[in-house]
Specification:
The chain has 208 residues and is α/β, with parallel strands linked by helices. It contains five helices and ten strands; from the N terminus they run E-H-E-H-E-H-E-H-E-H-E-E-E-E-E. The strands form two sheets. It has an eight-stranded mixed beta barrel with strand order 1-2-3-4-5-6-7-10, surrounded by five helices. The chain has a two-stranded antiparallel ribbon with strand order 8-9.
Length: 208
């Protein structure tokens, strides 16, 4: 039996989170990015979500929308940034941090490979320096990307978007983003613009 979730870019008021819970939302996907980015999940927001009985899923995203972004060094540095945000929030080890590929990268898979090589190396280095403690690595992207990179460089979680997927669904997805809000077709829940997601249950979420 699948469960329902939403993702959105910026923090919402506590009464909206409560409304999400009343509407059956089981997980909320929120962002990590560079320091001081206004879309960053904060510890206080994470506590509000958790206190409403909703799990949190995190995704690291700055501007991953073109091929030249995806280099080994970018992946390495993004992972270091992501674990810093996770530490600030108090995200427990052994939950997942997804890394976003937010465009149709089906023709740029070597770039995606290099990027996640960097992510994987950075997380492995963190694990060695912290007594085996780590977060699991996930990927957000279209079908070609998630199908290609799952299982490489420690990528063990898949959040597939219906965008750029040509109707294909990766059979082992952890999260599937099935309805996406756009300017021409906004999707709203509890008066907030959201994307809608579903999961078979194992999405790498957490509460604090």
């Amino acid at each position: 039996m699948s469960v329902e979730g939403v993702d959105y870019m910026y923090a919402v008021p506590a009464n909206t989170v409560s409304c999400f819970a009343q509407n059956g939302i089981k997980f909320i996907c929120r962002y990590y990015a560079t320091s001081n980015n206004t879309k960053n999940l904060t510890q206080s927001e994470a506590k509000t979500i958790s206190s409403n009985g909703i799990d949190i899923v995190t995704v690291y995203e700055t501007n991953p929308t073109y091929a030249s972004y995806f280099t080994y060094n970018q992946g390495y540095n993004d992972c270091l940034d992501a674990v810093s945000r996770a530490g600030e929030v108090g995200q427990p080890y052994n939950s997942a941090i997804y890394f976003a590929v937010d465009y149709d990268a089906s023709n740029d898979l070597p770039n995606i490979n290099n990027y996640f090589h960097g992510v994987g190396d950075a997380m492995q280095q963190y694990e060695k320096m912290n007594g085996g403690s780590k977060w699991y690595i996930g990927v957000y992207g279209g079908y070609a990307v998630v199908n290609y990179i799952k299982g490489k460089w420690g990528v063990s979680y898949v959040w597939q978007t219906s965008s750029w997927s040509n109707g294909n669904i990766y059979p082992g997805y952890n999260i599937y983003q099935y309805e996406i809000s756009t300017k021409s077709n906004p999707v709203k829940l509890c008066n907030v613009e959201v994307d809608k997601d579903r999961s078979p249950g194992n999405y790498g979420g957490f509460r604090i």
